[in-house]
Specification:
A six-stranded mixed beta sheet has the order 4-3-2-1-6-5, with no helix packed on it. A hairpin with a 6-residue loop joins strand 2 and strand 3. It is mainly beta. The protein is 5% helix and 40% strand. It starts with a helix and ends in a 7-residue tail after the last strand. The chain is globular. It has a single domain, classed as PRC-barrel domain (SH3 type barrels, Roll), CATH 2.30.30.240.
C-alpha cells in the first residue's frame, strides 16, 4: 500500500501502550539515502514533551523505525535509547 505524506499528516499518534501522544506534523527524510528517518509529533496538551527528544519547534521526534503501525492512528514505540 502506498501512502503520501499528505495522507498521514495530522493523524493521531499513540504510543504502543495506548497513550495519546499528539498529531503527526511531518516526516523527515535522509537526503543522502532517501530513507524516512524521523516522525515529528505535535504533543497533545496533556503530554509532557520534556520526557522525549524534541526539535527546535518543540515537536517530539521519534526515529522512523519506532513506527509500528499506520492505520486510523499511527502507533509508535516510545523507547528512545540515549535520551
Amino acid at each position: 500500500m502506498k501512502l503520501l505524506a499528505t495522507d498521514i499528516r495530522g493523524k493521531t499518534v499513540m504510543s504502543d501502550d495506548g497513550t495519546m501522544l499528539g498529531r503527526l506534523r511531518n516526516v523527515s527524510v535522509n537526503e543522502r539515502t532517501g530513507e524516512l528517518s524521523e516522525v515529528l509529533v505535535e504533543p497533545a496538551d496533556d503530554v509532557d514533551p520534556r520526557l522525549f527528544k524534541r526539535d527546535n519547534r518543540g515537536y517530539v521526534v521519534f526515529p522512523f523505525e519506532n513506527v509500528k503501525s499506520i492505520r486510523d492512528v499511527i502507533v509508535v514505540s516510545t523507547y528512545q535509547p540515549g535520551f
